[in-house]
């Protein structure tokens, strides 16, 4: 029995850069779009872009080319729970799509992750915490969960806090294009003439670097657990345990 691949779907390369720093890369086309895949042994990572549609396309592409046994939606998340600080990693038990309230239960981990269509500000975070009892918010996990479910593939959402519940972020959402790509050049031009935003931006850059390192360690842990599970030759991956909030 060959080892089923673990596939990680992230939005941006900087979220998983420490995890894939020495991995080989290849490019493959799916549905008219070219994707960059990071490969190591039986694991694969794809960064599909920001937002639900970009995540869905990336998930479908990795399923088509690699037929993974487990898909992890990984990346940065904003804290809804004020006790969660930058660098805190967790595997969410429940993923809720804020658009329609639909819920995915991964069967492992703890906590509630909300997927929202835009980058949530402090006021939206407070509303999600109240309405759903959520712990964190992202933009992609619900879409990846739907793709995995449609193909009968096991799913986990592994996230790391990159901004706290009361963080005031620059207007990053306006610089994400329709394909889910962050327009760095336009954002740089915007920020260059607004020096009052520089301090917050430097803090955000430091926080996301810390978050990416923590996420890499967590993904390595999930990879080891998945490999050990497969070696037990159980087709339904019994005994695999996603780690909860810590």
Low-confidence stretches: 233-246
- Apparent shape: globular
Arithmetic mean of pLDDT:
89
Helices, by number, come to: 6
Q: What is the makeup of the main sheet?
A: 11 strands, mixed
Distance N terminus to C terminus?
A: 34 Å
The CATH level-2 architecture is identified as 3-Layer(aba) Sandwich
**Named CATH topology:** Rossmann fold
CATH class: Alpha Beta
Kindly estimate the percentage of residues that lie in beta strands according to DSSP: 25-35%
What share of the residues lie within helices?
A: 25-40%
Number of strands: 11
Structural class: alpha/beta
How large is the radius of gyration? 17 Å
Write the layout of secondary structure elements.
Elements: E1 6-10, H1 13-16, E2 24-30, E3 33-40, E4 43-47, H2 52-66, E5 70-79, E6 89-92, E7 94-97, E8 103-105, E9 112-115, H3 122-132, E10 136-138, H4 141-150, E11 154-163, H5 184-192, H6 198-231
Parallel strand pairs: 1-4, 1-5, 5-11, 7-9, 9-10
Antiparallel strand pairs: 2-3, 3-4, 5-10, 6-11, 7-8
Helix pairs in contact: 2-4
Description of the molecule:
This protein has 246 residues and is of the alpha/beta class. The protein contains 6 helices and 11 strands. The chain has one domain (6-231): 3-Layer(aba) Sandwich (Rossmann fold), CATH 3.40.50. Strands 1, 2, 3, 4, 5, 6, 7, 8, 9, 10 and 11 form an 11-stranded mixed sheet that branches. The model is unreliable at 233-246 (pLDDT under 50).
């Amino acid at each position: 029995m060959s080892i089923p691949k673990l596939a990680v779907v992230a939005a941006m390369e900087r979220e998983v850069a420490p995890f894939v720093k020495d991995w080989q890369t290849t490019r493959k086309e799916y549905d008219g779009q070219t994707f960059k895949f990071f490969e190591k042994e039986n694991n694969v990572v794809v960064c599909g872009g920001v937002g639900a549609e970009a995540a869905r396309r990336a998930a479908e592409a990795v399923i088509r080319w690699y037929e993974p046994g487990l898909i992890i939606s990984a990346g940065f998340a904003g804290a809804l729970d004020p006790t969660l600080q930058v660098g805190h990693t967790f595997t969410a038990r429940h993923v809720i799509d804020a658009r329609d309230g639909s819920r995915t239960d991964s069967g492992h981990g703890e906590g509630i992750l909300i997927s929202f269509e835009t980058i949530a500000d402090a006021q939206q975070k407070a509303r999600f915490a109240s309405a759903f009892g959520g712990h964190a918010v992202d933009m992609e996990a619900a879409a990846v969960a739907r793709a995995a479910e449609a193909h009968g593939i096991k799913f986990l959402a592994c996230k790391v806090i990159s901004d706290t519940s009361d963080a005031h972020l620059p207007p990053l959402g306006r610089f994400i294009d329709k394909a889910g790509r962050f327009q760095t050049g336009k954002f740089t031009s915007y920020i260059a003439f607004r020096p009052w935003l520089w301090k917050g931006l430097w803090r955000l850059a430091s926080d996301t670097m810390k978050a990416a390192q923590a996420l890499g360690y967590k993904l390595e842990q999930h990879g080891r657990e998945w490999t050990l599970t497969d070696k037990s030759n159980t087709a339904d991956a019994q005994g695999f345990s996603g780690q909860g909030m810590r």
